[in-house]
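Exercise 7.
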Amino acid sequence: MGMNTTETPEQLKQMVKDKYSQIAGQDKETNESSCCGATVCATIDYTVMADDYTQLKGYVPDADLGLGCGLPTEFALIMPGDTVVDLGSGGGNDCFVARSITGPTGKVIGIDFTEKMIEKARVNAATLKFENVEFRHGDIENMPLAGLVADVVVSNCVMNLIPNKEKAFAETFRVLKKGGHFSISDIVLVGDLPEGLKKSAEMYAGCVSGAIQRQEYLSIIKDAGFENIKIQKEKRINLPFKILKNFLPEDEIDSFQNEQKGIFSVTIYAEKPLVCCAAGCCD
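Solution. The predicted structure, written as tokens, is:
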């Protein structure tokens, strides 16, 4: 399901919502048996991007749908008592891990625009009797949150699905407290990829295109007003030979695999300045 130039942002959002509504009704094993969850496609197992959560404190198997591409809570510098906002919270996996750190004096708010994901996460939270974890139905481009509420924002392989990343990061900036920060894991592209492979790369980004060049991604974050931007973790997604041979002559595959370009999972950290004049900073 790649991006078509005729698809509007609203159509893309509906595609994502349909996809993740279907995924919400499946277990992790079913999701892991397909390239990106809800449909079997002839590319690759989607979990080539996922990291292992099972040893993390606060891990809840029923909330893990195997859809992530990093472990943002590992790098998010969450402190006890913090208010944490998770963008694209899905079944609640990252929220529950964050709660184990922020503790009973903190608060965790998950935002997702797929109703079935919100329902699933709320059931998980109720089963666990977590009273300080809340899930809100809403759009990351227009968050159902007041400004200056979050100490930390996390997100795991979600921003790449959003058509208007500039607006999403502007909203992230708005909801963060002054001096607050985010740690976001996502999929980015590095270097010029063969056209066929780029379209396949879109499949790795949640089966809906949206992954952009790493440098463009970092520029959007900077333009939103963030500072102290750094890549906390970067992992090249190694594509199997059986995938590459569809897009490259065999004699070029070795050199491509040895080049520092391709599809990358990154975890990016950035801070909202304590003093600033950017739009939304003092709202």
